[in-house]
Amino acid sequence: MAFGIKREELEQWKRGVEQGRLMFLTHYWFDPRFPSCRTVTKVGCADLALLQDWCRKHGLDPRYIHLRERYPHLDLFGSLQNRILMAEGLFSHIRRYRL
After folding, report:
1. Nearest-angstrom CA–CA distance, 51 and 6
2. pLDDT 10s per residue in the chain (99 long)?
3. What is the pTM of this model?
């Protein structure tokens, strides 16, 4: 379950993904399978080659990409989420969600 984001933020992420840009969306999240994680960052891009290259650049296996019809994405949480947000210079996500 996602919460803590505005509809416009989600719509902006979707538009960017559909246009083949790498897009990052961090939000509060609850999933009983991961009780210690309270946020997730979705890294999406409809250009699968670009998203796969991005995964490899960060040492991630592209097989973990969720191949959603219009919004292929990878979910990042825990220490991996922090490491990648820092590497991508997305400090606003870190501050906003107190990561």
Report:
1. 25
2. 567 889 999 999 999 999 999 999 999 988 888 889 999 999 999 999 999 999 999 999 999 999 988 999 999 999 999 999 999 999 999 999 998
3. 0.92
